[in-house]
C-alpha cells in the first residue's frame, strides 16, 4: 500500500491514496490553517469507522442478514499531552434492515473488533475501544 501527502500551503495538505483518490487535510485557523479540510486525526477516526463498517456489512451479508442502511457514529477522547493519541473510542452502529437478528449483528461487530478490523486493532493499542448497536426495521 502506498500514499502520498503534498503540502499545499499554511498547514493544508492533499493526501493521495495508492488507488488514486484524494482528500484535503487542514488545521484550525489558530494553528495557521484555513479550515478547508478534515484534520488528520479525524481522518484516522473516520478510517477506523469505515474499516469496521466494511467488515460488519460483509459478515452480515454472508450471514444472510438484509441490511438496508448502516451508520457508525464515533466518539473519541485524546490524551491531554503530546503525543495526543486516542485514549478512548466508542463506535455506535445504527443498522436498518428487514428482520435483523441482534445476535448476528453483535457477532459481526465482535468479529470485526477482535479479528478483522486492522484499524481498530491498531488504534486499540493506545485507546480503549467500545461498541454498541441498535437495529431498526426498514
From TrEMBL:
Organism of provenance: Candidatus Thiodictyon syntrophicum
Protein name: Peroxiredoxin
Organism domain of life: Bacteria
Entries under InterPro entries matching the protein: KH_dom-like_a/b, OsmC/Ohr_fam, OsmC/Ohrsf
Gene3D superfamilies: 2.20.25.10, 3.30.300.20
